[in-house]
Amino acid sequence: YYVEGDAGVTLPTYRKGGDKAAFDADWAARNTSYGYVDDDKIDFLEPNVDRERIANLGKNPGQWSFKNLDDMIGYYEDVINHYDKWVGLNDDINSVHYNVGQKYFTIADAHGPGLAYYSTNNMGSNNPSMSGYLERGWLALHEVGHGYDGAMTYDPKMNLIEIEN
């Protein structure tokens, strides 16, 4: 990519299977406002307020904690794969149920709606932190589930904005 006037800042980026220690060190050294966690199915634009929490994943494990970023990415991949299967999506390009693929973009938005939200552009937490997405639990299951609830049909006769759980 090219940034006009070289004014851009490259974010510390972690990809599944990458060097977590190098990611943590890069983010700590440059102290950027965000770090980026990238996967085929979901991305996280992590605010600096969560940098220490991410650096310490797995150090004081709780029941819902992730061991590391690969564990977190794997959890979200598993959730998305299960949802795809449960709604009948497949890999046959000629099928009406063909999974064209999607990618969730997850952010912290201190001025977002509700506790957390799903929109046409992203899903996020209404908080300066993404702490709710950094552990297994209801928040992740619910917001990812909105990608399957049919709201994109915009049918005024059938309100499909909220998923049934």
From TrEMBL:
InterPro entries tied to this protein = Peptidase_M60_dom (IPR031161)
- Describe the location of the Peptidase M60 domain by residue ranges: 1-165
Query: What positions belong to coiled-coil segments?
Result: none
Domain of life assignment: Bacteria
Question: What is the name of the protein in this document?
Answer: Peptidase M60 domain-containing protein
Q: Supply the source organism for this entry.
A: Staphylococcus nepalensis
